[in-house]
What does this fold into?
Amino acid sequence: GGKDRRSGLILTIPLCLEQTSMDELSVTLDYLLSIPSEKCKARGFTVIVDGRKSQWNVVKTVVLMLQNVVPAEVSLVCVVKPDEFWDKKVTHFCFWKEKDRLGFEVILVSANKLTRYIEPCQLTEDFGGTLTYDHMDWLNKRLVFEKFTKESTSLLDELALINNGSDKGTQQEKERSIDLNFLPSVDPETVLQTGHELLSELQQRRFNGSDGGVSWSPMDDELLAQPQVMKLLDSLREQYTRYQEVCRQRSKRTQLEEIQQKVMQVVNWLEGPGSEQLRTQWGIGDSIRASQALQQKHEEIESQHSEWFAVYVELNQQIAALLNAGDEEDLVELKALQQQLSDVCYRQASQLEFRQNLLQAALEFHSVAQDLSQQLDGLLGMLCVDVAPADGASIQQTLKLLEEKLKSVDLGLQGLREKGQSLLDQISNQASWAYGKDVTIENKENVDHIQGVMEDMQLRKQRCEDMVDVRRLKMLQMVQLFKCEEDAAQAVEWLSELLDALLKTHIRLGDDAQETKVLLEKHRKFVDVAQSTYDYGRQLLQATVVLCQSLRCTSRSSGDTLPRLNRVWKQFTITSEERVHRLETAVAFHSSAEKVLQECPEQPEAFNEIEQFDEIEAVGKSLLDRLTVPVVYPDGSEQYFGSPSDMASAAEHIREKMKLVSLKKQQLRQPEAATPES
It folds into this structure.
């Protein structure tokens, strides 16, 4: 990379301690001298022979060899000597005396004095200069350049042969020529990339391995390599562009032929075996299992079609790509292929979808029919079991369940009709994809089957409805029977409560006649309530007898309820009569007592008969005695009104009034006794 003061190139020959092969050195020099241009060679070379690590004999041999290798180009040879070892040997051979014979000047110089002849900026660091130089980097780039030159030249010849062959002869000759030379020996993209990288390296004006960012001037060989690389790259790009077009045309023709072949394969299969598979599938099955088997068979057919549909999708994408980037001469053919392929595939897909929908509708129809059949079986089984009367609530629950089942059957039958009608509508459209085949017979079988299932379900449902009506009437009568029995028992309870209230709370006899009369009136109303309760119970028991006769069953409770009702009513009647008798006696007592107590003592004529007081006392005593007597029932049992303290309180009030009457009687007797004395 360095230059001498005459602008000639500097050639450095480093020698080492090992034996130097003159042949290899000669070949190397020949190679290096072939790199610069003739213009550079005309300016001459300055050769630096670095003999600091070599022997004098080797140095002398190298210098003499330069005479044979580059005599005309060498202007100056600088032999870099060691500091001490060659002084005596040099006296035996003086280079300066051989200048005329050698053809160039030879000087012997130390490394530190080499700058006398060459500028330091043109010398490398090995000789005390500042020129930045990386030999391995130069060598690597040179090897890349040599490889690129060799490969690009060979590739250009191959591409030219391929491209020129495609431009001559008939179409058949074109294809034959392209077939023989279609693939180059090396990848054009790789060679172009190598060339661009090499050119970029040459244009960087910097060694890749330099440190510190020191600038350097490119060597003449690199400046010479740049136009060569650029020229080769231009030629390669031109030939490669033509080659790509040839390949594109060939690929397009090959792809078009492959597409045509695949399109016909898809069309032939879909219109042949594929359509035949669908022609043989017309039934809908007569049960869920049969419909599922047909669906499974249809899925196998769809699976086979899916493989061809996948090919269709791929072909459609390829055709679309060719239409977007194709030539006008291919557009008509490509569109025709695309239209033919799409028509066949869409028609076949529609038929598959129609068949799948038909089978799905059939499966749903049979599923609804099976569910409805099971519901009818359950309802019939429920109706065939005799009703075991337990209580009204259970009968009501059973009746509610029966109504729910009947409603569910109604909904199921309605759903079956809807599914059946939808299926019939689809079957009526089956002829649209039958490819001319008469499917009337097959469709008639399917239609008859569907209508037969719906009619059968309708008849079964009607029979169940009739049985439900009978069962509903019977269960309603049973509910009424249980209700009557429960109400009759409740009437007995109410009557028992009235009797209990009569005995425990209806105790008071009144403090005077007026109050006693009020109590007596209330008691009569109380008795009317009890009478109504008894009559209500009797009517309910009579209704149970009628219902039992209608249901042909024996009531479990009415036989016991009637005697209980009569017994309680008899007890209530006896108790009520006793209560009335006591109240009436109390009214008579209070009325008589109040009458005599209110009379003035100045009217003795009102009491002419003293027996009146005796009658009042007798009534009072009788009432007191009655309070201590229990009520005796026909079965011999006894019941008292209220508690003993209640009776004692009522008796005490009567005794007090009897005392007042007795006192009044004594007062009336005293005047009578005084009259005879006077």
The chain has four domains: 9-132, 134-161+187-205+217-271, 284-299+328-470, 506-669. Strands lie at 9-14, 45-50, 74-80, 105-109, 631-632, 638-639.
